[in-house]
C-alpha cells in the first residue's frame, strides 16, 4: 500500500491543524459524515477512538472521530498532528490498558464486527478497535503492515487480544510472522494475551483456488483471494502460528442436505473444518453456522468472549 512521505506536498488539504472537529450539531457535520471505511480505506493509526486511514485508490489520508465524522484530510503528517491535538484535548486522559482488535474478512467491512463489539463492551472493560482494511485491494502483507503501524502507535504497556473473521485471521498471522522475522522493537508479541479465530482459512481455501482458476472473481476479490487460493503454497511461508493462547471456531453444516461443491468435506460453505484447523490451538469449536454469519452467531460470540476473558493477564 502506497504511503505518502511527510515531506510530500499535501493532497487537496481541506483544513488547518487547529481545525475544530464537526460535532453532530455543527452545520458541517453532515458533509463530514463517513461510513468509517469500507472497501478502499485502511486504518494506520488509532488514538482515543480516532483513526487515521489511507485510501487504497488515491493514497490520500484522513482522520476520523469515534463517530466516523471526518475531522480533516490531506497528508499523513497533517493527520498525525491533528490526532495528537485531539488526544491532548481529551478529558479525562485516554485509558488504554487493554485492547481487543476485531478484524473482518474478505469483501466485508469493520461494520460486520459490530455485534461482537457490542457484546464485549457489555462484559469487558477493554477498548475495542474494529480494524478497517481494504480487503479487496493490496496484499495481505500490506494489511498486516498497516495493522502493525496501528499497534505500534498504542501506549507501550497496552495488552492486546484479537478476534478475526476469515481472512482477518490470516492478516494477523502474517503480522506475527513479520514481527518474528523482522524484529519486534515495540514488544508487541509479549503483550498479546489471546486470539479467537472465526472461520479461519488456516490451510488456504479450496474455494479460492477454484474461483481463481475459473478467472471469474479475480478482479473483484483481489490479491488477497489469490494468496488464499492459487498462491497459497508460496504465501503460507509468510504466516506464523500465534505464540500466545488461541482458539478456533469453525462452521460445520455437514448435516445440511445441500453442500457447496467448491468446498471439500464438512464446512461452513466457504471454509472447511479441515482448512480451519491449526496446530497449537488451545480450543477448537464447531457451530452449525454459515461462514458469513459466524461473527453474528450467539454461540460463537459467547465462546469468543469467554475465551478472551479467561485469558486476560492480571493488571
From TrEMBL:
InterPro entries: AB_hydrolase_fold, DUF676_lipase-like. The keyword Hydrolase applies. Keywords: Hydrolase. Pfam families: DUF676 (PF05057). This is Alpha/beta hydrolase. SUPFAM superfamilies: alpha/beta-Hydrolases. Transmembrane segments: none annotated. Coiled coil: none annotated. The lineage of its organism: Bacteria, Pseudomonadati, Planctomycetota, Planctomycetia, Pirellulales. One of its GO terms (molecular function) is hydrolase activity. Residues 1-28 are annotated as: Disordered.
